[in-house]
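For practice. Any example?
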Amino acid sequence: MDQPSAFYTQVDEHEFESTTATSSPWDESLQHGGPPAALLAHVIEQTPGGGPGGIARITVDMLGGIPQGRMRATSRVVRPGRRVELVEASLSVGDRVAVSATAWRIVTSPDATRAQAAPALELPPLPDEQPQEFFPGTSPEWGYGRAVDWRFVEGGYAAPGPAALWARVRIPLVAGLETSPVGRLLVVADSANGLSGELPLAEWLFIPPTLSVTVLREPAEEWLWFDARSTIGPHGRGLAQATLADRQGLVAAVAQPLLVAPR
């Protein structure tokens, strides 16, 4: 199967059409959470505001399954400011809001804290290209899975438990547009749960209704280091966490609460 050229095509100023590159591993009629999260970041980045602030924290709420097809985007500045502002955005399918987000944008001052910044990280080398193996029972043609180059150092989609890997988005978020660094980050951030599930997926459900990503800085490189783990609590809830980095240092922290239940 040919890979789509992007996750979305832009229909008009406010409408986007999903492609099969957004597809969920469990239901091709639905979207994986990563591309819609990145599309909301794109919409927020395009929203005029009071200062040249980049996204410092974005929380994405998935209000049920996100259908494939045409989505209408809206956004507004909730709390304006010259240095810190809050923006909200949503994607609607028909008359239903399918996914929404709030984001704090904080003004950046190039090199203002360079001397105080944390040092670069020593990370494992990028492995050679690997066979792309997904969840047990998932088609090797899984659209979202094939749209990202996954190179595992520890763990894997088929191996329960923590995972450490390099990831690179293969295609643009929106056809004809360059994907922003934060957009590339958001495409993969929602995979923290799927990459690090602690229990067999054939027997257990892990449902993350929301995703929160705190961004220290924009990624400086195409490849992102992804270190993910999940913790199961005693009362049917769990927590998926991940750190994302490049060779210059930490980029972002990811957190997802989970509903954990037998199938």
About this structure: The chain has a mean pLDDT of 94. Residues 34-45 form the longest helix (12 residues).
